Amino acid sequence: MCSQNDLEGQAPNPLNPEFFDLLDQDFIDYYNKHLAWMPKTHLLSIEEMRKNGHKYASPWCRDFSNEEFVKDIKLAADDGYLFTARCYYPDDKKSTFGIGPYPVYINFHGGGWTFGGLTGDAEICMAIRDRLGILVMDIDYRLSPENAFGTGADDALAAVKWVHQNGSEINAQGDCISIGGISAGGHICATIQQLARDADLPLRLAILSVPAVIYEGDFRKPSDAPFESWVENQNAPCLNWERSKFFQQHYNPKNSAERAEFDSRPICYKSPLYGELRGLCDTFICTAERDPLRDEGELYGLKLAQLGVRVSIRRYTNVPHPFMHMAPIKKAQMYLEDICSELGRVISPRAAS
């Protein structure tokens, strides 16, 4: 195994030395084995990433589309665009809910509104399905820069509406919907919390994992952010200031028309933290100590609590932004236990006879 000094000299993406003593050893071991040797994707063009996405995919990306109990369906956004929703069905011989209908958890993947798809969260989706015996639906929402910022949230809302109104078509309980997402997916989840409340679409639970809850597209340096965690973790592994700038370049409005359209949207599309938070569904918020997004996620949770929303906030120490994807590390295992416990609390006990 290479030493840390060897990695610094050979690997294209070694850990920053200032974080050696700030991270769990099992994360460092995972990073050095799987991530240090990957290129810094924020130094690549978006065209290269789109053309050769499999080449740069994170080690946890998996395609389970050909597995038993996995089915892709097409849903329509309000503008007519068709997007894919991947449904992970439980084994009815093992599920508490038997042959259904099943409670449903709708997932919105991360990737800075620019990367990602139906492989990034697949292992987590499968794990939730297997532990709880519920239907998990993963949404392949539209990305930037090909689409204006906010379009992905439109797709996400369309998915929630469709399941609420047509759940029986996929053997789901349309009145037992929970949602969740990681990173940019957490931002979308927070947006949908507010839009669903306004549209009288009841949700059981929202799981916001390492979420962005303010619009960072106007920041020019870490200290522009109103949170110390952006300065403290500006050189952190996996998500840092350089990578954030890359995403900004691609999701920021590209012309005056896009800017005008974006500014006309409700504030929750841009910065859920500054939206109307009263009356939101139960919420679980996961933050990571070595993540630039840590403080804003925790503040979102505190504001919910102040307004009477049932919320749990957990900070996972000594790990960075996407730790929950790294199944061998202890904090990732704790995270999976935590979110399944929260979901288990709210899902309907109703099962088919």
From TrEMBL:
Alphabetized Gene3D superfamilies for the sequence: alpha/beta hydrolase (3.40.50.1820)
Entry coiled-coil feature ranges: none
InterPro entries according to UniProt: AB_hydrolase_3, AB_hydrolase_fold, GDXG_lipolytic_enzyme
GO molecular function: hydrolase activity
Domain Alpha/beta hydrolase fold-3: 106-324
Keyword line: Hydrolase
Domain of life according to the entry: Eukaryota
UniProt xrefs under PANTHER family: AB HYDROLASE SUPERFAMILY PROTEIN C4A8.06C, ALPHA_BETA HYDROLASE FOLD-3 DOMAIN-CONTAINING PROTEIN-RELATED
Name of protein: Alpha/beta hydrolase fold-3 domain-containing protein
Organism: Clonostachys byssicola
